Amino acid sequence: MAIFALILAIVLAVFIDKLTAFSFVLGAVLSALAGYIGMMVATMSNSRTAQAARAGLNPALKVAFSSGTTMGMMVAGFGLLGLSVLYLTIKDPVVINGYALGASLIALFARVGGGIYTKAADVGSDLVGKIEAGIPEDDPRNAGVIADNVGDNVGDVAGMGADLFESYVGSMIATMTLGIVSFGFESVILPLVISAAGILASIFASFFVRAKKDSNLGSVLERGTWISALVVIILSYFIVDKFIGMGVFKGFGVFYAIVAGLVAGVLIGKITEYYTSDHFKPVKDIAEASKTGPATNIISGLSVGMRSTVLPIIVIVAAILVSYHFAGIYGVAIAAIGMLSTVSMTVAVDAYGPVADNAGGIAEMAQLEPEVRQVTDQLDSMGNTTAAIGKGFAIGSAALTSLALFAAYTEVAGLSSIDITDARVVSGLFIGGLIAYFFTAHTMQAVGKAASSLITEIRRQFREITGLMEGKAKPEYARCVDISTKAALKEMIVPGVLAVVIPIAVGLIPFLGKEALGGLLGGALVVGVLQAIYMANAGGAWDNAKKYIEAGNLGGKGSEPHKAAVVGDTVGDPFKDTSGPSLNILIKLMSIISLVFVPLFF
Amino acid sequence: MAIFALILAIVLAVFIDKLTAFSFVLGAVLSALAGYIGMMVATMSNSRTAQAARAGLNPALKVAFSSGTTMGMMVAGFGLLGLSVLYLTIKDPVVINGYALGASLIALFARVGGGIYTKAADVGSDLVGKIEAGIPEDDPRNAGVIADNVGDNVGDVAGMGADLFESYVGSMIATMTLGIVSFGFESVILPLVISAAGILASIFASFFVRAKKDSNLGSVLERGTWISALVVIILSYFIVDKFIGMGVFKGFGVFYAIVAGLVAGVLIGKITEYYTSDHFKPVKDIAEASKTGPATNIISGLSVGMRSTVLPIIVIVAAILVSYHFAGIYGVAIAAIGMLSTVSMTVAVDAYGPVADNAGGIAEMAQLEPEVRQVTDQLDSMGNTTAAIGKGFAIGSAALTSLALFAAYTEVAGLSSIDITDARVVSGLFIGGLIAYFFTAHTMQAVGKAASSLITEIRRQFREITGLMEGKAKPEYARCVDISTKAALKEMIVPGVLAVVIPIAVGLIPFLGKEALGGLLGGALVVGVLQAIYMANAGGAWDNAKKYIEAGNLGGKGSEPHKAAVVGDTVGDPFKDTSGPSLNILIKLMSIISLVFVPLFF
Fold first, then answer.
1. Which of B106, B105, B81, B84 is nearest to B93 (CA)?
2. Closest residue by Cα to residue A175 from A298, A277, A289, A93
3. CA atoms of B380 and B369, how far apart (whole Å)
4. Each residue of A484-507: pLDDT tens digit?
C-alpha cells in the first residue's frame, strides 16, 4: 500500500501541486490510523465482552458497543479533525481534494483488497478443514483459521470504517467546493459545523444505548440511531439559522436538504432490514425456493436482490429531488452531509457485531458457562441485522457522496452541462457502466483465485508438518495470513489501477475529454449503485435463508433444502462481502480522481 | 393481445391522432403476420428437413435454411413494405411513429410473454415428466410435451423475428425523423433505400449458402453473412453518392456510418460466439469450476457473463463515436440502419436452428436411419452457435436502435440538451436503470410461477386420466398449452404495463418532465444493454459448459461436475431465453412510447 501511495503522491506533486500531495498523504495516514486503532480495540474487546457476558446482557453490550463506538469516533473524529486543520491552514477547497483521495486509497485497500482477503481466507480454510480434513470450523489445527479470523476484523471493522471515512470526507469536500459558488465562506464551513454537531449528537445518543435483561436489542440499538438523528436535526436548525439564515435558498432550504439526507439514510437501513431479515417475506421466499433445489434458490435470490433495489433507489431519488428543489446542487451535497452526520453512531452500531461474534467464539473455546454463550448469541444475532443495515447505509451514503463529488467535478471542470444527447457523453455513460460490470466480475473471480493459493498452503502444512493432525505440532498460521494477503493484493492491482487510470485517460483523450468523463461518472454511479444494492441484499438474503432453514424450518440442517440454501449462501458470500461493497469504493474513487486531476484536462 | 392493442389504439386516437392510431394497428398486424407465417413455415419444414436429411447434408440444410429465409424475408419485407407505403401516403415521419409502436407491442408479447411461456413449459414438463414420473423427455404421455414444443417455435422463431422487426422498423423511423432536420427529403428516404438494398444483398448471398458433405457448416453460414454485408457496403456507396453526395457531412460521412454499423453487428456476433462456444476459454473455465460444485459454477458463470460485456460495449461505443464523428446524430441512426440492413440474412441463419432441432426429434420418433440423425445433429449443433450469435446481434441492434430513437425523441421534444448535472435528469437515469432491474427480477420470477401452474395441470392429468401412463389414453395437450399461455400472459401484464405507463407518467409529472424522461431513457439504455448482454452470454455459456461435460469431459454425464453444471444451465435458462432478450424489448418500447407520446408533454 505504501508503494502505491508513494507513486500517487509523486504523481500528484509533479502534475497537480505539492499541497495536494500533502493533503493526500494526510488523508491516507489518518484513515489508516482510524482503521488500525479500531481493529486493535475490536480485537482487545473480544475476550472482555466474553468476560462481561458472565455478568449479564447489559454489561456485555456495554463493552461490545463501546468498542464499536471507538471505531465510530475514530472515523468521524479523525476525518473531521484532519479536514478542519487542513482547510483552516490552506484555505483552498481545491487543494484539500487530495485529502479525500488519500481516504479513497485506504478504502480501496481495506474494502476491495480486504473483501477479497476475507472471503478467500473463509472459503479456503473451510474447504480444506471442514470438507477435506473433516475437522470442525475454527479448529486450531487448521493452518488457515487465524487468517480467517483476521479476515472478519478486516472486512467488518476496517473495511466498513474506511468506506464510511471516505464518504464522510468526500461529501464534506464536495460540499465545500460547491459552497464557494453558492455564497462564500459560510456555505464552505457549514458542512464542517454540521458534522461536528453530528459527533456531539452521537455521543449524547450513545448514553441511551443500554439494555435490561429482557430488552429487545434491536430497539435498543435503533434508539441510538433515532436519538442521534433527532438531535442533529434540532442542532442543524439553529446552525443553518445562524450561518445561512432564511430566504437565501427557498426558506430554510439547506435545513430541509439536511433532513432529507438524514431521513433517507435511516429509511434505506430499514428497507435493507426488510429484504435481508428472516422475519419477512423475501428471505422466506428464498428458503421456500430451496425446496426445489439449488437452481431455484439461486434464481429466487438473484430476483429478490434485483427487486430490493426499487425502494432504496426511490428513497435516494426522492432525497435528491427534495434537496435540489430547496437548495440547488449545493442542497444535494448537503443532504449527503446530513446522512453522514451521525456516522459515528452508524459505525458503532455496525462494528459491535463482529466483537460480539468473536466473543461467542472465545466463550466456546474457553468453555465458559452456557449462559455466557446465550448472552453473546443474543448480541451476535442482532449483529447480523445491524451489519446488513450498515451495508445499506454505506451504499446510500456512497451514492449521495458520489453525486456530490460529481457535481463538484462539473463545477471545477467548468462544465455548464453534461449533455447525454452528445455521443461522447453517451459513450462515457456506457464506459462507466462497463467499468462497474468489469469490476464486479473481476472481484468475484478474485476470491476464487486467492482462495486457491491458500488451499495449496493449508494442504501442504497438513502433509508436511508431522504431528499436526494429532494436535502435537502447531501449524504456521502466519504463512497463511501472509499468502492470502499477497494473493488478495495481487488480485486487487488490476481493478485498482483501472479505477485510477481510466477516468484520467478518458479526460485526457481529446476525442473524449471532460464531457465524456462526466458521462462516465454518471454511468458508473447509476450502474454501480444498483449493482451494489442488489449484490449486498441478495447476499444477505441468501445467508439468512440458510440460517432460517438451520433454525429448523423446511427440514432443518442437513435436509435437501438446506443443501440448496448452502449453495446460495456460498454464491452470496462474494456478493455481499467482496463485490457489492467494492462498488461503493469504485464510484467514489473515480469521482475523486476526476476531481483531483481535473486541472490536467484543460 | 387484441384487447391490449385495442386499448392502446383508442388512447392513441384520442390523445395523439387518428393516423398514428392507424399506423399503430398496421405495424402490429404486419409484425404479427410475419411471425405467424414464419412459425407456420418453420413447423411445416421440420418433417421435410428430416426427410431431406436422408439425401444428405446439403439437401437438409437447403430445406432448413429456406425455412429460416422465409422468416427473414417476412421480417424485412413486411417491415419495409408497410413503412414505405405508409410514408409515401402520409408523408409525415411523426405520424408513422405509431407503426413502430405497433411492432413494439407484438415484440413485447412474442419476446417477453413468449419468453416466459417457453421456459415455463420447458421447466414444467421436464420436472413432472423426467423427474417425477421418470419418463423420457418429449415422451408423448407427458401432457406438457406439446406446450414445450410450441415454446421452441415461439421463443426462437417468433420472438426473435418480432424483436428484430421492431429494431428494423424503429431504427428506420428514428432515422427518418432525424433526417428532416438533417437536409430534408433525401435523408428521410435514405434509410428505406439502404434497407431495400439490404434485402437484395441478402437474396443474392443466400445462393451461396450450400454445403458439401464435408463442409464446415459454420463457415458456410458465415459466408452468407459476409457476402450480404459486402454487397450492402458496395450498394450503399453508390446510394449515398446518389442521394447525399460528397461533402454534405464530412466527406462520405453517411457511408462510413453505415459501414461502422454493419461491421459492429458482425463483430458483436463473433464476440458472442467466443464467450458462449465450448471451443474457447470462458466456457471451459465454467466447466472447470463445476468440479468444486454448483456454487463455483454459478460464480464463474455470472463472472463470465459480466466480463463478456466489455468487448461488445467497446464495439458499440466505437460505432457510436465513429458514426457521430462523420455524420452527427443522423450518423448514429444510420449506423443502426447499416447494422440491420442484412436482417433477413441474420434471421435466416438464426431461425434455421430450431427447424433442424425439431427435425432431429422427428427423425428419432419416426425411427429413421441413424445417418439421418447424424445429419440433423450436425445441423443442430451449429444451430446452437448461430442462436447465440443471433442473440448478440439482437442486443447490439436494440442498443443502436434505442439510441437512435432516443435522439429522435430529444429532437421531437425540442430538447436542446439533456443535462445530467440537472437533478431531474440524474433522477431519470436512476429510475431508468431501476426499471431494467425490476423488469429482470420480475421476468425471472415469472418463469417459476408460470411453470407451477403447468406442473399442477400435468400432475392432475397423470392422476385423473386412466390408462395415460400405460399409453392407452391420450393426455389433453391443448389444456396445457392453454394454461401456460394464460399464466405467461398474466405474468406479462405488470412489466408490460409499467414499460408503457412509467415513461408517460414521468413525462407528464411537472416536477420531472421531458428532461427527466430523457434521463430515464438513457439510464434504461445503459443498464438494459449491459444486463442483456451479460444475461444472454452467461446463459449461453452455462448451457454449453454443461454440453461440454456431457461430451465426455471432466467425468461426463452423471458425474458430480455434470450435476453442478446442470444447476448452472437451469439458472441460465431464464437468463438467456426470458430476461435477457426481454430487455431488448424494454429499452426499445420505452423509447418508442416516449417518441409517440411526446406531444402530450408540452
1. B84
2. A93
3. 17
4. 999 999 999 999 999 999 999 999
Go through chain B and tell me how many residues it has. Answer: 602
Whole-angstrom distance between the N-terminal and C-terminal Cα of chain B? 31
d(CA A95, CA A92): 6
- Interchain CB distance below 8 Å, B530 and A433: yes
Q: Between A and B, how many CB-CB pairs are < 8 A?
A: 212
Q: Which residues contact B9 (CB under 8 A, 6 or more apart)?
A: B21, B24, B25
The residue behind cell 460540499 is A175
Helix, strand, coil in percent for chain A, rounding step 5: 85, 0, 15
Tens of pLDDT, residue by residue over A563-572, are 999 999 999 9
Q: Which three cell numbers stand for residue A445?
A: 473471480
Closest CA to A375 of A53, A67, A66: A53
- Give pLDDT, residue B562: 95
pLDDT of A250 reads 64
Cβ B171 vs Cβ B340: under 8 Å: yes
Handedness of CA A375, A376, A381, A385 (dihedral sign): positive
Tell me which residues of chain B, numbers 197 to 256, contact chain A at a CB-CB cutoff of 8 Å.
none
CA B598 vs CA B22, B409, B428, B506, B518: distances in Å: 18, 8, 16, 11, 11
User: Comparing C-alpha atoms, which of A496, A507, A518 is closest to residue A589?
Assistant: A496
Mean pLDDT of B125-133: 82
Asked if B513 has any chain A CB less than 8 Å from its own CB, the reply is no
CB A68 within 8 A of CB A355: yes
**CA angle centred on A57, ends A53 and A59, rounded to 5°:** 65
Question: How large is the angle between the packed helices A513-550 and B423-464, nearest 10 degrees?
Answer: 40
How far is Cα B391 from Cα B155, in angstroms, rounded to an integer?
12
- Give me the sign of the Cα torsion angle A578, A584, A585, A587: positive
CA pair distance B194, B338, nearest whole angstrom:
8
- For residue B557, report the phi and psi dihedrals to the nearest 5 degrees: -60, 135
Q: Taking the alpha carbons of B209, B214, B217, B222 in that order, is the dihedral positive or negative?
A: negative
Alpha helices in A184-216 (DSSP H): 185-206
Query: Do residues B372 and B54 touch, judged by C-beta distance below 8 A?
Result: yes
Chain B residue with CA closest to A331: the answer is B423
Q: What's at B494, amino acid-wise? A: V
Cβ distance B529 to A310 less than 8 Å, yes or no, reads no
Give the 3-state secondary structure of residue B278: coil
Q: What is the distance between the alpha carbons of residues B217 and A97, in angstroms, rounded to a whole number?
A: 59
Q: What is residue B16's three-state secondary structure?
A: helix
**What is the DSSP track for B473-518?**
S---HHHHHHHHHHHHHHHHHHHHHHHHHHHHHHHH-TTTHHHHHH
| Phi then psi dihedrals of residue A538, to 5 deg | -60, -45
Q: Which of A78, A71, A154 is nearest to A110 (CA)?
A: A154
Q: Is the pLDDT score of A591 beyond 90?
A: yes
Query: Cβ separation of A299 and B440 shorter than 8 Å?
Result: no
Q: How far is CA B148 from CA A289, A294, B109, B431, in A?
A: 23, 23, 18, 36
Residue A35: predicted pLDDT: 92
> Residue A7's CB: how many other CB atoms inside 10 A?
11
Is B589 in contact with B107 (CB distance < 8 Å)? yes
| Residue B419 DSSP label | B
